[in-house]
Design brief:
heterotrimer, A mainly alpha (about 350), B alpha/beta (about 280), C mainly alpha (about 300), A: about 350 residues, mainly alpha, C: about 300 residues, 13 helices, about 70% helix, about 0% strand
């Protein structure tokens, strides 16, 4: 590392040297944070899975397992070793994607998760798209027309969004849109008619169907996904619109907005190009947080809508005391959290010239 | 000399918990293509006068005047679109602190080009060329480099020059400068002032220079209005400042430190309630 | 403090609003009164307060208010009666139990969970945050690293995993929610501590020889209290929702206890024909968490004007 910065120094002067050094230091610190957070995540799940239960093997295998299997697992987990060595083994296994075998499905947990995760990603992504597309304009309007009807609506949407149990709202939505009105399909991701004929490529059914030009399939998939996605979208809209409003109120009070008016710009240009562009910097974090929140919300939503994703996988495993599957799912969702935070941090840096490295 | 701006009995008031508060209470003055200074302490209504002329008063404020005309256009009855076209196009304003008044996420060049393209339909390339010329006109040595910089990457003096470039590029006839140098280092202040001075002179603009610094204003402007509590207490030509009659003006002048004399105790402004009347 | 009982000027209101308080007590009461005036000028906040007072009263007098037993019903005569049936205002569930009575008794569970979680997490967060902020250095780095690790976890999923290991039940649900809820308080308390850490008044206390323990306890923690109270109140709604979610998944309070989330889960099977069984407990959850949110918003506007509008 030092040799490259030295040669940099010779070529381009001390200023760039300092900048590059800072960049490397920043990146190293950043990587350190990510690594320790990930290790912390593993430590917590290790604690939950191996330390809390009286007999971790029983917790993993259930009490109906044959004695030979119990003995084999005990050895594989290294339970006769000291705790720190067990943790070392645990980390090594987790890093190689080995979360053990699911009692319920008898498959490796990792392959189960790889199978169900795209369903959750598809649902949460559509949800956050809906939330962003409605939440940002609503929040902007509420800030621009403070005290108006839109402002009141945003307030009510926010209050209800923060107060209503998501699974209950999902049940009521099913009652209305599926049972009474028949507008949407339920349950699952795809109708029986297509379930065996449709071969997904990426696992994101909506994308796959559109890509393959299977319009009928796409419509069917849409009718399945729209209600749970709209539900998740509502919750992310509640959060995003409220935060957008508050960021926009802050930006609209800044001097550069006065300057933009003094330049003779139109109000819409000032609002959308100047103020919102500045509010977008913290908004990125908000959207990322709400995306992460939706991954979590999917646990309950998927249960209500029988959506075959990671959330349903975790809850099914819970009902069957399938500890490997629960912890594997927890680690995957936790890692996704870390990944999303990382991504939002990088995006933040590119959006705000003040934090840009070069 | 043609009269550019007529202001007669201008009043600006804001609603507050205890009724309407008048920030400006009956300003009257006219302005040609000359340099007018408006001086007063904070809260005297000097900035609100400038903003009322620009049409930048917050919506909850109430503005009345017997006459508020720019080049024959009645500003109070003008439609928002007419006023918007005036802003930046014919009347421009330089704000106090470039750290806050430049958009932090837009490059300096784009902010300058934006003013120009709002008021004139010019091609992208021509807009860029004229922005570079303008940057050169405010004595920025390497316009092409500064064009792509973001506000946080330049110094305060450079930022304020960019601000001036942004406001003057569409060729306004009247410039309102609201404390344009008070956020800058003392060494840079004079530099920016002389750039402003030259541009105003070269282009034959009218200038309203709002400041709390009486000495600065008097050295820079032709005429000075001294404001106190929303009113003009004295109008005086800059050269005559030594003969100011109003006790408030004299008080302001007395506050200036001078070399070589012992000033103990330091003089304090003695504000008389009857000046408000 | 000998002059606490200074002759009070005419009218309590004037005494409270005096800008020259004669004693610390008067100043404190005056401040509290001002805060109350600001809070009370917000009509929605008062609605929220009314909801919470009603919740406490209902929980306290559940045995008097409930018309029927919350756990016993008649499968033969009162099964799945619709709302407004005589004697059963909100209808009955599949076990023939009166839903209103179950909701009334369930308020005790909700209140217990919320108060227990708040009583566990707020002090922990406050302690971790103030110590980290005041001590600085490696203590700060270590504590904040731990805090961040817990923040990186999705709350509900971590709570699920914990309950899975500890076993279902309301005590374990409380523990699980508490473990996941303290980090934001620690972050906030640390930020507040950093803000006051280099102030002159703390320097003065240090010069007088106060121990770090005393400084943190008596001079730093009180500064964090008002934002902590606001945050905890707002979070109570979230705690209720997570508790209900755990109950819905069968991991919270176990049957036949009338936990609202579990009631929704048991009503789920009848949602198409007997909608009220799942709908009523959801309404109860909605109203109560709305109450906490409204009060929290009101408190924030009254205590922390900087943050209002958020």
């Amino acid at each position: 590392m030092s040799s490259t910065t030295l040669s940099d120094n010779r070529r381009t002067g001390p200023q760039l040297h300092a900048k590059a050094g800072k960049l490397i230091l920043g990146t190293a610190r950043f990587a350190g944070v990510v690594v320790t957070t990930f290790l912390g995540l593993l430590a917590v799940t290790f604690f939950i899975g191996r330390v809390i239960p009286v007999d971790p093997v029983l917790a993993v295998l259930g009490d109906r397992a044959p004695a030979s299997a119990i003995e084999r697992t005990r050895e594989a987990m290294g339970l006769n070793l000291p705790l720190y060595q067990q943790f070392f083994i645990y980390v090594r296994q987790a890093l190689s994607g080995d979360f053990g075998t699911s009692v319920l499905t008898t498959n490796p947990v990792m392959s189960d998760i790889a199978h169900v995760f795209p369903a959750t990603i598809e649902l949460a992504t559509l949800g956050v798209l809906i939330g962003t597309c409605f939440g940002i304009p609503l929040g902007v309007l509420a800030a621009v027309k403070r005290g108006s009807l839109v402002d009141q609506i945003v307030r009510v949407i926010g209050l209800i969004g923060y107060s209503v149990p998501i699974f209950w709202l999902g049940l009521l939505a099913l009652l209305l849109f599926y049972a009474k009105l028949g507008w949407v399909a339920y349950p699952g991701r795809i109708g029986i008619a297509f379930e065996y004929s449709f071969v997904p490529t990426t696992g994101l059914y909506l994308v796959d169907a559109l890509w393959q030009g299977e319009w009928e399939v796409a419509w069917d998939v849409f009718r399945h996904i729209i209600l749970p996605a709209a539900l998740l979208g509502y919750f992310s809209m509640a959060y995003i619109s409220r935060m957008t409003r508050s960021f926009m109120l802050n930006e609209l009070g800044q001097e550069y907005v006065v300057a933009a008016r003094a330049k003779g710009l139109s109000e819409s240009r000032i609002i959308w190009r100047h103020a919102l562009r500045n509010a977008a910097v913290p908004l990125v974090t908000v959207i990322a947080l709400s995306y992460a929140g939706l991954l979590e919300g999917s646990v309950l939503t998927e249960t209500v809508f029988s959506w075959p994703g990671l959330g349903l996988y975790i809850t099914n495993s819970l009902q069957n005391a399938d500890m490997n599957a629960v912890l594997g799912g927890t680690i995957i969702i936790g890692s996704t959290f870390i990944g999303i935070n990382l991504l939002s941090d990088l995006l933040y840096r590119t959006l705000d010239p003040r934090t840009r490295a070069s | 000399m043609s009269t550019l701006l007529h202001v007669e009995d201008l009043r600006v008031s804001f609603p507050s918990r205890s009724g309407m508060v008048e920030a400006v209470r009956g300003m009257t003055f006219t302005l040609g293509r000359e340099r007018l200074g408006i001086v007063g302490e904070s809260g005297s209504g000097k900035s609100q006068t400038g903003r009322a002329i620009m049409g930048l008063t917050p919506p909850q404020a109430r503005i009345t005047a017997r006459r508020l005309e720019f080049d024959g256009i009645d500003l109070l009855s003008a439609t928002p679109a007419v006023r918007r076209n005036l802003r930046g196009g014919r009347i421009a304003m330089v704000l106090q602190d470039p750290k806050y008044s430049l958009n932090p996420v837009m490059s300096i060049g784009r902010q300058i080009v934006e003013t120009l393209r709002t008021h004139e339909s010019v091609s992208r390339a021509e807009a860029r060329a004229r922005a570079l010329d303008m940057l050169a006109a405010v004595q920025i040595r390497d316009p092409a480099r500064v064009f792509d910089l973001y506000p946080h990457e330049v110094s305060g003096g450079m930022g304020q020059r960019a601000m001036i470039a942004m406001m003057l590029i569409a060729g306004p006839e009247l410039l309102i400068a609201d404390e344009p140098t008070s956020a800058l280092d003392v060494t840079v202040q004079l530099e920016v002032l002389s750039i402003l001075d030259r541009l105003v002179a070269d282009r034959g603009m009218g200038l309203i220079f709002v400041s709390h610094d009486l000495r600065l204003v008097s050295s820079f402007c032709d005429r000075v209005l001294v404001m106190y509590a929303g009113r003009v207490v004295e109008e005086i030509s800059a050269a005559e400042l030594g003969n100011a009659k109003h006790p408030y003006t004299r008080g302001l002048l007395n506050c200036m430190p001078t070399l070589g004399t012992d000033r103990h105790p330091l003089p304090v402004l003695d504000r008389q309630p009857e000046w408000r009347l | 403090m000998s002059d606490t009982l200074a002759p009070s000027p005419p009218g309590t209101r004037a005494w409270l609003l005096s800008d020259r308080p004669q004693s610390r007590m008067q100043a404190r009461l005056g401040r509290a009164y001002m805060n109350w005036l600001r809070f009370a000028s917000n009509r929605l906040a008062l609605v929220g307060l009314a909801i919470l007072i009603a919740l406490v009263l209902v929980a306290a007098f559940a045995s008097v208010l409930a018309p029927h037993s919350p756990t016993a019903g008649s499968l033969a005569t009162t099964r799945l009666l619709p709302p407004l049936s005589p004697g059963y205002l909100l209808g009955t569930d599949d076990q023939g139990r009166d839903i209103l009575s179950r909701l009334i008794y369930g308020s005790r569970l909700t209140l217990t969970v919320v108060l227990l979680v708040a009583a566990i997490t707020a002090p922990i967060g406050l302690l971790v945050g103030t110590v980290a902020g005041y001590a600085g250095g490696w203590v700060d780095a270590l504590l904040m690293r731990i805090t961040d690790i817990f923040l990186a976890f999705p709350k509900l999923v971590l709570a699920l995993a914990l309950v899975a290991a500890l076993g279902p039940g309301i005590e374990n649900a409380v523990i699980a929610i508490a473990v996941t809820s303290w980090p934001p308080y620690a972050r906030m308390a640390r930020a507040e501590t950093l803000a006051v850490r280099n102030t002159d008044y703390l320097a003065a206390v240090q010069l007088m020889g106060a121990s770090p323990f005393r400084i943190v306890l008596r001079h730093v923690m009180p500064m964090c209290l008002s934002s902590l109270i606001v945050r905890v109140t707002l979070d109570m709604a979230g705690i209720i929702l997570i508790a209900a979610g755990l109950g819905f998944l069968g991991l919270g309070a176990q049957p036949p206890s009338p936990e609202w989330g579990a009631m929704i889960a048991s009503g789920r099977r009848f949602i198409l024909d007997q909608w009220w069984v799942a709908t009523m407990p959801g309404m109860a959850i909605l109203i109560v968490s709305l109450g906490f949110n409204l009060v929290g918003d009101g408190l924030r506007d009254a205590l922390d004007p900087r943050e209002s509008g958020r």
